[in-house]
Each structure stands twice: as C-alpha cells, then as structure tokens.
C-alpha cells in the first residue's frame, strides 16, 4: 500500500533525526529539508500527506512557509503541525489563525509527535470521506484493508487500480499530473509506459459506472492529468 508521506522542515539535524527515526519506525515515509524555502517546491513536486514545520528556520519563519503553502491550491489543504520552542510563538500560532492543525513545543517526545500525526491523519481521512446529500459517504477508504468503497459498495480493484484511486482520493479536486501519478503509483515498476495510466483509468471508470452509471467522478484534464471530482454526486 502507499505509505503516508510526511515532509519535515527542520534546521536542527539532531531534532530531525529523532523524528525521522520515530515516524519512520511507524511506517511513515519522511522527506527532510533544512530550509523554509524548500518546503513548497518540494511539496508541489510530490504532495505530502502532512507537513511538520519548525517555526524558527534559518532563512524564513515557519509562519511564512505556511502562508506560502496556503496561498496555492497544492498546499491549501495539507495538514501542518508546527514545532515551536517559544511560548510567544504559540501565541502567534493561535492568535493569527494561520491554519495550522496542531503544534508541538520543544523539547517534545518523538512518540508524542507521532501520536499527533496519526490523530490528524485519521481526522483528515474522515473529512475526505465525502458524504453525499443523503448523508451517506460517497467514498470510504480503509487503507489497512486496501479497500475502497463507492456508494457503500466495496470495489474489486487490481493492485494498480487501487493505488491509482487511492492517490486521487487522497486529495480530491486536485489535479495529479501524469508524472506525479507515475512516480507515486508505479514507483516500483520503472518500465511502465505512460499508457498504463489511461488503461487503468478506463477500467476504473468502468467499475465505478457499474455502481453508479450517472456519475463520472474521475475527471480528465487534457494534457495535464487526472483528478477526482470534489463535487459530491
Ligand atoms: Ca529551528
């Protein structure tokens, strides 16, 4: 299955190392950058499920990094946890309503951070299980069971169909480029051609149509890639 990806923006290597170890041992995939200005480009290139952001960075502040993320469609919804060393920074986090999901004060226990990460990702997953007008979820994704249900009906998916749909579902409304899809879904199959994406989209659409012929949740963005409709049927 796709492991959840976390971006860590932290200039102190020792702190980064403890987090990389703690989160890595829980199965998360961690990318670490040292500078604030690296955060958004890295996230735009390959979106993360969550970002851990140190407030005090050498080149900018974590606040500025978050503002930059929130100003772009690619970074608008990604959950962010601040790491902060000072009480006045906490006041700012709370006072400015910057749209951070949580914060952790240094010194922290890596296990505590891991627990916060898991809690936020669970909450986020629930929010992404969109509900339709009848109050029933359109999508239900159980990553542990590798199971995705559409209108309450579990889909019978091949491995790559599952990975592809799970990726689109991870950020509905977001356009994933063909390159991003190749990198995330076919990461372990470098010989795969571009055409595989279209083939799998086609079979996925057929399986979704079999459940609900009236909706077309996978949207083609010509020349760019694919997105899952954020509009609920
Ligand atoms: Ca720092």
Explain the overall architecture.
With 233 residues, this protein is of the alpha/beta class. Helix content is 42%, strand content 19%. It has eight helices and eleven strands. It has helices at residues 13-24, 36-45, 62-70, 87-96, 110-128, 159-170, 178-185, 195-211, and strands at residues 5-9, 29-33, 50-54, 80-84, 102-105, 139-142, 147-150, 153-154, 176-177, 218-221, 225-228. The strands form three sheets. The protein has a five-stranded parallel beta sheet, with helices on both faces. The protein has a three-stranded antiparallel beta sheet with strand order 6-7-8, with helices on one face. The protein has a three-stranded antiparallel beta sheet with strand order 9-11-10. Strand 4 (80-84), helix 4 (87-96) and strand 5 (102-105) form a beta-alpha-beta unit. The longest helix is centred in the middle third of the chain and has 19 residues, at 110-128. It is elongated, with a radius of gyration of 19 Å. The structure holds calcium ion. Calcium ion binds at residues 11-12, 54, 56-57. Residues 11-12, 54, 56-57 line the site of calcium ion (CA).
Write the layout of secondary structure elements.
Elements lengths: L4 E5 L3 H12 L4 E5 L2 H10 L4 E5 L7 H9 L9 E5 L2 H10 L5 E4 L4 H19 L10 E4 L4 E4 L2 E2 L4 H12 L5 E2 H8 L9 H17 L6 E4 L3 E4 L5
The site of calcium ion (CA) has 5 residues, from loops.
């Amino acid at each position: 299955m796709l492991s959840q990806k976390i971006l860590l923006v932290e200039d102190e290597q020792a702190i980064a190392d403890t987090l990389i170890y703690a989160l890595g041992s829980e199965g998360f995939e961690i990318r670490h950058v040292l500078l604030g200005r690296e955060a958004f480009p890295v996230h735009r290139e390959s979106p993360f499920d969550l970002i851990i952001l140190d407030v005090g960075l050498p080149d900018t502040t974590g606040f500025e990094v978050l503002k930059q993320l929130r100003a772009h469609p690619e970074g608008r919804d990604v959950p962010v946890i601040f790491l902060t060393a000072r009480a006045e920074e906490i006041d700012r986090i709370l006072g400015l309503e910057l749209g951070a999901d949580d914060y952790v004060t240094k010194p922290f226990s890596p296990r505590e951070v891991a627990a916060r990460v898991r809690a936020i990702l669970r909450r986020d997953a629930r929010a992404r299980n969109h509900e339709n007008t009848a109050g029933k979820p359109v999508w239900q994704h159980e990553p542990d069971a590798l199971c995705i249900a559409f209108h309450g009906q579990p889909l019978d998916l091949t491995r790559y169909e599952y990975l592809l749909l799970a990726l689109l579902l991870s950020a509905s409304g977001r356009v994933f480029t063909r390159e991003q899809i190749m990198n995330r879904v076919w990461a372990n199959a470098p010989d795969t051609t571009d055409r595989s994406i279209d083939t799998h989209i086609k079979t996925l659409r057929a399986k979704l149509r079999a459940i609900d012929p009236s909706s077309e949740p996978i949207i083609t963005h010509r020349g760019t890639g694919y997105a899952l409709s954020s509009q609920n049927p």
